[in-house]
Structures are given as structure tokens and as C-alpha cells.
Amino acid sequence: MDKLLILDYGSQTTQLIGRRIREFGVFSEILPGNTQITDELLTGVKGIILSGSPHSVNDADSPEPDHRIFELAAAGLPVLGICYGLQRMTQLHGGSVQASDHREFGRSRIRYNETHPLFAGIPESFVSWMSHGDSIIQAGEGFRVVAESENGIPACLAAPDKNMVGIQFHPEVSHCEHGLEILKNFALNICQARAEWSLDRILDDITEDIRRTTDGKPVLLLISGGVDSTVVAGLLLRALDPELVHLMYIDTGLMRLNETDEVVRTLESLGATHIHVVDARDRFLNPLEGVSDPEEKRRIIGDAFIEIQQHEVTARGIPEHAFLAQGTLYTDLIESGKGVGKHAAVIKSHHNVGSPLVIEKREAGLVIEPLASLYKDEVRAIGTKIGISDAVVHRHPFPGPGLAIRIPGQITREKIAILQQADDIYIRELKARGLYDEIWQAFAVLLPVRSVGVAGDAREYGYVLALRAIISRDGMTADVYPMPWDHLLEISARITNQVRQVGRVVYDVSSKPPATIEWE
Length: 520
Ligand SMILES: Nc1ncnc2c1ncn2[C@@H]1O[C@H](COP(=O)(O)OP(=O)(O)OP(=O)(O)O)[C@@H](O)[C@H]1O
Ligand SMILES: O=c1[nH]c(=O)c2[nH+]cn([C@@H]3O[C@H](COP(=O)(O)O)[C@@H](O)[C@H]3O)c2[nH]1
Ligand SMILES: NC(=O)CC[C@H](N)C(=O)O
Ligand SMILES: [Mg+2]
Known about the structure:
It is built from 15 helices and 18 strands. The protein is an alpha/beta fold. Homodimer.
């Protein structure tokens, strides 16, 4: 398949470049910015994009591309530099880049004063989106300034003889006018890449790949009922004889109301025969009794997951040589260090389901990850295509530790039951009011606080419930969902009327950062 290679220097928007390009049907792959470009890597590659970066090209150890890229460009392989990518290109060709007094962040009108295929079909002047402190002071050898910003700063430079072009702005950001057209012009016209990426094509490839890799051996999938693992289940059942597919769901006792029944129904509807529902409620809840420290709770849950998996795989006679399937996404891989961006600090230890099992299987070459080249929205589209219900496909993410991290402080079975009920009302109301799909994630949190109220003329001493609803792209940052006031009031009244133990409802208006999405 034809593809574009994106070299990542750690920009916040590198991922977006990739998905925008896929949006018009060209396959793209993101690699660390300093990757050595071998002939093997170049198979199918029709063009290269150098991303932006938090670094400055003038920093001592800022990342650099393999210089072979420029030889390849001169020989006919187009290269596009975005922001830092352009600055690097300029500097490596004898130009100069310096920190400028006039930094440009956000919207900036630019104008091009000569035609370039990158701007084909685009008005001479439009509003771009910028995010830079350094600017090009002197063009590199063979480069010409094609466009400037309203501040007189070079916005596009091109070296047509060398097949290189660079832009100071970010076409991948949705606020950049004509951004998609610019990327399209580069991919389809300048690189002549064929738009061969389609869901049907990917579905065929994945199916074929699952069959070839597993080669008649059984497969085990740990399934949570979330989008990713459910889509993997659907893909496995479609590609293989269902007799070979073992699905294991662990009921932690910390799931949402009726979740276990729903998961089982979904799996049955997908044609699964080996559904292992592990009732592990006591094995999670007993050791959690009396524990209030968030990290301690997470550790106990993580350990329980691991222990239960190991034990159940043996107890249920799942063959030792079975493959382990996982719902790893493209973003998971990049975030876990395939990129060169700075590593995030550990804010919370996300439960790592099955590490010893995963490690052991990985070492034996027995792990398959059919979604590893896909973004979440593509996974959703595939889910729909293979007949997974909208209810599952559009479900908000749910964390492995479940309700445990939505009950700050000590967890009791009573509190879990209260939260399940309140959360269920909240989510059902959001759906009924047409708000659910506008929100990236919504849930209720049962606070370890009681407050005085009055009901039927008598004193009540009930729990306080916090409602949370956020909008996000990937969970890394989040904005508060501006819940329409009348909806909020009505939902609050529903909850306090129907869940006796809840006496008061509050709405969480904190973004991430500084808060996180979950409360623990
Ligand atoms: N209760 C559970 N039983 C079995 N496996 C689980 C359970 N909870 C989590 N897992 C495993 O952990 C993996 C990671 O969970 P994660 O929440 O990131 O993904 P997901 O649940 O598939 O999708 P989503 O992000 O939409 O919730 C799951 O894909 C699944 O394999
Ligand atoms: O599978 C998971 N295991 C975990 O331990 C975990 N902790 C948080 N989350 C989810 O991750 C996203 C970001 O959450 P935070 O802002 O609270 O860190 C949100 O979508 C959270 O629901 C988890 N998911
Ligand atoms: N977005 C970018 O690539 C910024 C590049 C460089 N850090 C600058 O500030 O100019
Ligand atoms: Mg989940």
C-alpha cells in the first residue's frame, strides 16, 4: 500500500497529522524522528513529513532526522517540514533559525506570493494556525520564501528542485483554514500517493493476518466490555472458528449496574461459544476492605487481576500454547514510548492487566494485537462494520479499576450499590436527552462526605454525589462539558428522588489539567 512516513519530533499534534492523512484515504505511519531510514522502511513510501517539536533546533541535543532523507528528496521523494520540521530543514541547508521577539501562537493570517502545488485551489490569503517561538531568519540554500504571515514572518519555504517544502503553520489542526486541502495537495498531488486506505481493505488485512498468525491454534482474549476489547472479540470470531476463541471476562464487583449481563449478551450475539465469566467479586472486594489510599487501592486491584488471570487460565483448561489477543491501539503504542516525546510523569499507576501473562506470551511470540495500527475512531468504525451494537461502539471509556476509583476513600458493598444506581440513572438520562454522544466520558462519583438535608419534613443525612462530564480527544487533557443548566437540575432531582441515600448532587467543573478525569 502507498504510504506517507511521518517522523515525530514530539509535537502535541503529530498524531493529528497521521489521522488527517488517513481521513482522505492515504495510509500513514509515525516513526521516531531520529529513525535511521533503511531501504526496508521505504517500501511503499511516497513522501515524508517532518513534524513539529517542543524542542528548538538551536538546543544542543534536539532530535535530528537521518540526513539520507535529503538525498532521497533530491532524488525525487517529496519531503514536507512542519514547523520544527521546516526549521530543521532550513538549518541543515545553511539557513538560520532564531528565537524571535514575535512569537506566533494560535490564529495567524498568511499570504502566499507565488504559486506552489501545496496551495493549489486555495485562496491567496487565509487564516492558518501557528505555535512557534523560533522563526526562519535566513532561508536555506535553494529555498525561497513562498508565503509570509501578517507579521512578516516566513510561513512557507520551498526548494522545488530538491522536492522539499516546509510550512511554519500547522495544517493538521482543525482551526487552520484549508489545512486538510494542504495535506491533500501534498499527499495526492505532490507525492502522488494513491488513496488505498479504507476500512474494507484494513478489515480484510486484519482478518487475513489473524488467520495466518494463529494458524489453527486457540486464542485467549481478556474482555472488559469496552470498545477496544469487544471489537477484537468480534474480529477474532469473524476470522476464526469460534471453537478456537476463548473470551474471559472478570467480574470485579466494581463494574457498572448490570454490566456483566450486558457483556455476556454482546459476546453471545457475536457468536462466541467459550465465554468464561469469572465471578471474582470477593477476590477484589475483600482485600479492598478498609483501604483508603488511592495508590494502594490500585495496587490491590492490579495484583488481583494478575492473580486471577493466571489461576483461571489453568483452572479452565485454556491450552497453554494459546495466543493472547489484546486491544492495543496505535495511540497506546506511541504513548508508551515509540515516539521521542518527553515521557509523562506517573500520575496514577494504571492497572496493567496481566503483566506476567503478557510478558510470558510476548516472549513466546504468542501475542496478537489486531488494532495496533488504528486510531480509536477507526476502531469504532470497524466495530460498526462488523455488526457490534452502537451501544458498545459509542460507549464511554471505563477504567479497569472501575468504581473503586469513583468512591474516594474506603469502599463498601453498600457504597458500590448506591453508586451503581446513581450512575445508571445519570447515564440513562444523558442518553434520553441526546447528550451522551456529545460527551467523551461521563460518570458519577460517590463522595466520602455526608450532608444534612430535609425530605418529607424530616431530617436526612445523605451522601454527596458528584457528576462529571468531560470532552476530550484522547483522555490526556479534558475540558468540562458545559452541561445545559435545566438538564443538570432535572437529572439531579431524578437522582435524589430515586436514590434515597444520596442527599445532594454537585457538578465537577474542573478541567484536566489541573484535575484528572477520574477522582483517584
Ligand atoms: N473486567 C475485566 N475483565 C477482563 N479483562 C479486562 C477487564 N477490565 C479490563 N480488562 C482488559 O484490560 C484491557 C485494557 O482496558 P481498557 O479500558 O484500556 O480498554 P477497553 O476496556 O477494551 O476499552 P475502553 O477504553 O473503551 O474501555 C482491556 O482491553 C481488557 O483486555
Ligand atoms: O484502563 C484504565 N485503567 C486505569 O487504571 C485507569 N485510570 C484512569 N483511566 C482512564 O484513563 C483516562 C484518563 O484518566 P485520568 O485523567 O483520571 O488519568 C480516563 O478515560 C479514565 O477513565 C484508566 N483506564
Ligand atoms: N511547533 C513547533 O514545532 C515549534 C518548534 C520550536 N519549538 C519553536 O518554538 O519554534
Ligand atoms: Mg475499559
